[in-house]
Amino acid sequence: MSFSSQVKEELSKQISPARHCQIAEIAAIISLCGKVQIDENDRFRIKISTENEAVARKCFTLLEKTFNISTDIVIRQNAYLRRNKSYQVMISEDKDARKVLVTTKLLDENGQVEEVLSVVRNRVIQHTCCRRAFIRGAFLAAGSISDPEKFYHFEIACQSEAKAEQLRDVISAFGIDARIVMRKKYYVVYIKEGSQIVDILSVMEAPRSLMEMENIRIVKEMRGSVNRQVNCETANINKTVSAAVRQLEDITYVRDFVGFDNLPENLAEIARARLANPDATLKELGEALDPPVGKSGVNHRLRKLSDLAEELRERRERNASQTIQGNEEEEL
Length: 332
Description:
With 332 residues, the protein is of the alpha+beta class.
């Protein structure tokens, strides 16, 4: 079972004790995955479609508990993908359908269905508890959440921009930064920050999924912290090794062309210490001297040796160039 299905399974078992919250949740479900059919005799019928069995079960339970009406569930099998099933919760009786639509405020004052079952500025979400139920219903109807082991992404697809903006505002009322993006023909309300997705799970009242995601986030953050520390230490080691190799090359060059006996005593001492301890840190080199020298002092002496080596190389190149030039003039 995917993490998204797991969350919906948990939310499907969450039934608000207050009737007004149940109504708000039903309003969101009908608005986002429901259709109202009106026949030639002006009789209403509601059809709620979903591919999630837990969501269909939740719709059936909510309608029965809130309105005490009978509903039918139709299960359809995809002819090409046999594993995929779709579920349709049907309210076939006209009086029952009208009762649900009026109660959820999806019928206007003239008894007409609001455009695309709009719940914008709907009175069923005036209370904070009802907003929680509304978000829960919206997620059950048209939402998904990625596996937090891979990446963080929460979204709810809406068929109109007005619905998306309203849903974003309802979510924002809980201090969560939700945004909207257009994808194909849908307006998608999404959240990408891990901590904010944890917050929305709390708002929807999914404590088990919340704790699982928090545990995954903690492990991922610890793993990331360890990786950063290892990378930093590796970079420092590589830097130290590269510096030591350059120092050894410079000291060897100075020894071969000048000799340590012709160097000031402090430079000769650190040069011999570096050759004797090629893997030692600056601190270890300084402690090996008599008297001991701090890291800055050791670094200063090694830098002077490097400058001397560079000067010797340049002098040698100039001499070689002058010799070649003199030979050419003699040949002429």
